[in-house]
Write a sequence for this structure.
């Protein structure tokens, strides 16, 4: 079977897409896997030997031609046409669009394959998503705090590929400690001085060699805080070899983090700026991380920092990181924040996998639900019933003879209610996203508006029913175990 | 007002000062006939990408790369169907102007044009969006 993966994002994304290769090979060991990547990242070929063939798209050339108008756009046309022609000569059985932007979607309309998965166009029209996970990816992933799931899990499920468990980090007492002190985005940089302090604290506690990693381009910048003999600039392949025997990598959200995770190197990651720990934490079990808690975190990658000072970086002190790293290396580290999101992940998984409330017989182990959680879920249920009544009123207004003012008034009531629910029930805010999005279509057509509003309500309602059911089952289990104890 | 008359009216002043013009697009040739009727001594170089020709002593059917330079270029867009972007590029080159950015080029593409070439142009547009 010949498979093409369209991977036209940045280096870190290509490294995460390599998980697809692992999963595909597990499902179909004889599969011949091809990757389409941007030419500027062609050096990644040496560290992903499982990919049989790499196809390079010269995006930098295309951009240059198209932006610099004294050049004929025909040069860009011919270049892209040649790339497409060579891809079509391969006659792929399966094409996976792992890129999910408009350019890649347009390419899916040009590249031939027996089966195409992901965001796909056919003759200029979007092919409807018949995959709830792909819809979730499309609706939620780009939103701030939108996704409950890691990018790798979401991508696998959206593309219909069975996911393998991540590798477990190989904890060691020997081996160097590496610090990746810069990222590609200034907002994600924690600060060279902070890393310097952490290095000093660790050197006092551990005998391991500690080295700073940076690219040759970054060296001048890094030399402001570190000396030449502290710094190394390995190639991707060299870095991967180093991580195979490293004790630890301390890093921001970078492609190096994912490279280390791919060889089960223990990592401690610092998530600030636009780096969303839920989405792009290292895909390896047993890694550690710290993320900002400021109101402005996470922010959009495409926008400059909205604050006068780099608040999210300032909130995480070098002392805090040193303490947590030491605990991690000594085996006493515990991430409290992960536990609270497990419940919501379980609820969404049931929903996206198409489970109905009645089928919730086998339940994974869940954190114990507090009385507050149960109360909050019951209140949410009441609020959703209120919404349903108002939506019903709008549908009557549209199909009946009630005036438009009524529709507008009720719409505003619903809009305000949805916003207050998003704020009040922070842990389930994304389930109201669809309803919120419906207000963007209201000027086009009331019918469209009603359709999106209903769909959002149904989703929120289903999620809440799953939540209530899971709480009920968990409470029954707790009651059951208490009774066993008393009988003894 | 008929298409040909409107078209002539738009370019009347420039044509009256020219000895030779380049016309992009043959179509059914009615606009070329109208041009010859209005300007009996005008020499015309006609470029048509679909292979159509116009037979007349004053009309020379040429390919885009053989067209004269420093000539008035007249676009007859109703005859451009299926070759909108190609004609736009030729026009820009003959007028020695910017090729036009990819957005304005692809704006000429009819939605129903789902040819391989049109899809490539649309994909290129996404790169600069």
């Amino acid at each position: 079977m010949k498979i093409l993966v369209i991977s036209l994002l940045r280096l870190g994304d290509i490294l995460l897409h390599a998980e697809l290769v692992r999963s595909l090979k597990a499902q179909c060991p004889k599969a011949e896997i091809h990757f389409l990547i941007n030419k500027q990242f062609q050096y990644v070929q040496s560290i992903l030997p499982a990919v049989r063939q790499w196809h390079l798209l010269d995006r930098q050339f295309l951009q240059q031609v198209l932006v610099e108008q004294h050049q004929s756009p025909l040069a860009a046309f011919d270049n892209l046409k040649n790339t497409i022609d060579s891809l079509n000569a391969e006659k792929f059985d399966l094409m996976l669009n792992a890129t999910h932007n408009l350019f890649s979607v347009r390419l899916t309309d040009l590249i031939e394959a027996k089966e195409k998965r992901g965001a796909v166009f056919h003759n200029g029209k979007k092919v409807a998503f018949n995959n709830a996970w792909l819809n979730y990816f499309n609706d939620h992933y780009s939103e701030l705090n939108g996704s409950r799931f890691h990018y790798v899990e979401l991508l696998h499920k959206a593309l219909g590929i069975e996911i393998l468990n991540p590798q477990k980090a190989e904890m060691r007492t020997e081996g160097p400690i590496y610090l990746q002190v810069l990222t590609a985005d200034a907002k994600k940089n924690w600060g060279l001085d902070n890393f310097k302090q952490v290095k000093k604290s660790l050197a006092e506690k551990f005998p391991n060699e500690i080295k700073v990693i940076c690219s040759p381009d970054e060296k001048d910048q890094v030399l402001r805080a570190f000396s030449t003999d502290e710094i190394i600039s390995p190639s991707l392949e060299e870095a991967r070899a180093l991580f195979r025997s490293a004790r630890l990598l301390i890093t921001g959200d970078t492609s190096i983090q994912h490279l280390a995770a791919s060889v089960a190197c223990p990592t401690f990651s610092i998530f600030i700026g636009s780096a969303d720990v839920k989405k792009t934490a290292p895909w390896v079990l047993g890694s550690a991380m710290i993320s900002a808690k400021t109101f402005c975190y996470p922010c959009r990658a495409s926008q400059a920092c909205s604050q006068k000072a780099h608040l999210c970086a300032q909130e995480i002190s070098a002392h805090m990181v040193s303490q947590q790293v030491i605990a991690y290396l000594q085996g006493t580290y515990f991430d409290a924040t992960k536990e609270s999101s497990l419940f919501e992940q379980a609820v969404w998984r049931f929903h996206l996998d198409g489970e109905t409330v009645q089928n919730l017989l086998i339940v994974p182990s869940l954190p114990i639900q507090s009385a507050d959680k149960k109360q909050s879920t019951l209140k949410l249920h009441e609020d959703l019933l209120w919404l349903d009544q108002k939506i019903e009123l709008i549908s009557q207004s549209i199909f009946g003879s009630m005036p438009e003012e009524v529709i507008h008034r009720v719409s505003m009531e619903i809009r305000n209610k949805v916003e207050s629910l998003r704020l009040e029930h922070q842990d389930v805010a994304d389930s109201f996203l669809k309803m919120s999005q419906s207000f963007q279509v209201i000027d086009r057509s009331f019918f469209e508006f009603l359709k999106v509003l209903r769909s959002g309500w149904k989703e929120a309602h289903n999620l809440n029913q799953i939540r209530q059911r899971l709480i009920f089952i968990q409470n029954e289990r707790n009651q059951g175990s208490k009774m066993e104890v008393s009988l003894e | 007002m008929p298409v040909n008359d409107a078209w002539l009216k738009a370019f009347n002043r420039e044509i009256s000062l020219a000895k030779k013009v380049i016309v992009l697009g043959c179509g059914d040739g009615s606009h070329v006939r109208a041009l010859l009727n209005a300007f009996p001594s005008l020499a015309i170089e006609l470029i048509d990408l679909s292979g159509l020709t116009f037979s007349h002593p004053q009309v020379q059917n040429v390919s885009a790369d053989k067209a004269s330079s420093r000539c008035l270029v007249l676009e007859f867009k109703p005859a451009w169907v299926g070759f909108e972007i190609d004609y736009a590029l030729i026009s820009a080159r003959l007028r020695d102007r910017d090729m036009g950015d990819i957005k304005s080029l692809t704006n000429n593409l009819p939605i129903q044009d789902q040819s391989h070439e049109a899809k490539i142009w649309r994909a290129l547009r996404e790169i600069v969006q």
Q: What stands out?
A: Chain B touches chain A through 22 residues (CB under 8 Å). The beta strands of chain B are 20-24, 43-47, 59-61, 72-75. Helices of chain B lie at 3-16, 30-38, 84-94, 102-107, 116-128.
